Amino acid sequence: MQSYTVQAGDTLCGIGKQFGVSVEQLKEANQLVNNNIVPGQVLKIPEMTSTSTTIYTVMPGDSLYSIAEEYHTTVEELMKLNQLTSTLLTVGQKLTIPGSENITPTTYEVYTVKSGDNLYDIANTYNMTVQELMAINNLTSTNLALGQQLKVKSSSVLGASFEECYGEGYVEPKYLEYTVQKGDSLYIIANKYNTTVEKLMELNNLSNINLSIGQVLKVREI
Q1: Domain 175-221 adopts which CATH fold?
Q2: Residues of each domain in the chain carrying CATH 3.10.350.10
Q3: How many C-beta atoms lie closer than 10 Å to residue 52's C-beta?
Q4: 3-state DSSP call for residue 134?
Q5: Quick one: which H or E segment has residue 16?
Q6: What is the pLDDT of residues 50-101, one digit of tens each?
Q7: What residues contact residue 40 under an 8 Å CB cut-off, 6+ apart?
Q8: What's the predicted TM-score (pTM) here?
Q9: Which CATH class is domain 108-153?
């Protein structure tokens, strides 16, 4: 089973769209009682059980890695299913994609490199790793040129609306947040904000009472 580390600005909705699973599947796999997630939290991504396939036509600039990323599979699985002996592809080649009936492929948009850009900042902006960015764009070096065009994850994947995933009329809750200070404990924070340790743990999906300085906690809904 895959895992994913929650980044700032992530929602269960956006993560679900990224990996082609539903919010409910994510909650069930991670035993979540609500939709709240926090940066640094590690989520299990449930496996897709569908055995259906689809046919993909290779486009200019494609690689097995980028296609595997797009359809949430692996290079090894693509090679095995298509009986490939090499990772080389040709434009117009037909590939069978495994288990893709219920998978929404990751979509990409084009980013044009500007003065001062570097791969790390671009990857961070689009919730990607430098390695992923290099592989998708077939880069062999981290050097960039002004005006160079890169494939990056679509903003529609990063910023999926709550209403889209949770139903019409759903309003994203807003929370009062508290930054953990030296000497703090869940009991002290709960007492300060007239709540309970149990509610703080549930609200922040905490599996234990350990805190770290600088950690941001949701304390109550505004």
Answers
A1: Membrane-bound Lytic Murein Transglycosylase D; Chain A (3.10.350)
A2: 2-48+160-166, 53-98, 108-153, 175-221
A3: 12
A4: helix
A5: helix 12-19
A6: 445 677 888 777 788 878 777 777 888 888 888 888 888 888 888 888 764 4
A7: 5, 6
A8: 0.40
A9: alpha beta
